[in-house]
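Progress against Task 2.4 (sequence-to-structure conversion) is shown through the following example record, which the project officer requested during the mid-term review.
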Amino acid sequence: MAARPPALSEAEGSKPSLIVHGGAWDIPDSAVEACKAGCRRALEAGWKILSSRGTALDAVEASIVVLEDDPVFDAGVGSHLNRDGRVELDAILMDGTTLNAGAVACVQRVRNPIHLARKVLESSVHLLLVGEGAEQFAREQGIALCSPEELVMERERAAWSRCMANGGHRAEHHQWPAPHGPAGSANGTVGAVALDQHGGLAAGTSTGGTCCKLPGRVGDSPLIGCGCYADVKAGGISCTGWGEAIMKIVMAKTAADLLRLPLGGVAYGESAVADRTTHTAQEAASAAVRLLSERAGGTGGLIVIDREGQLGYASNTPRMSYGYVGADGSFVVGV
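Structure tokens generated for the chain above:
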């Protein structure tokens, strides 16, 4: 399913814009308010920076830190456990002005991997660092390492134990407290996209990955063009969902290319509109999700800000948690 946010006023290069997500999954009723509250706090952190003429990179990083620190989401503290009962985290941050990016994967002792991704972006000639090498780089950059156990919540340990006892991961083993209905899985990958008053654009994504994944598994989230992409000539995108399917269609880059492409020259069910030549952010988001379903048989969602600050989001899952700043500066959150 896809949802269209209210139309925003026409954005100039100096008008900031911000959108965040907390994952696209089968979020149970009992977790809706917690997901919305987490997205609101992330918006508050990012918008405080943007409204003070701060940069899009700083705003995206600040928003994602809030989501990583919130155990409601599958990022940072509260992440799913791999097959060996450990947390392995992935994150990426991309600068749409320069196309520079920094990413980390399979880190087990970094509480906020988005901080480490920022260090890779700014202080390394490489784009992606993994595992022990990424953690060594963290120490060299002054990022304190935590004990792996600090990232593990009892809720996730219990879910992992149920999965291991019953042949592997199944959604029903991830039970969210449900006083008014059936339990379900609420955890999801997190992300943010921002456009600042200087015309800078940035996007980021952070995740703990899938429950019971093989040690060393890396999904779409930290891969440039798959789980995240940003280019001031097109837009910024952060994705969430089944990583193996998202990688097959390089979903973030696909959405960015749709923002560049004339409406009359692309498939995915779009038709030409007489008074404009390119896809809106919402059209690009919806088209990317259709492609995910039709070509890769996948489920997931994404958030988009185009080069003019217009917003879009879409998913083909029962629910996706999201939040954005409206044209009047109000915070809009939903699931």
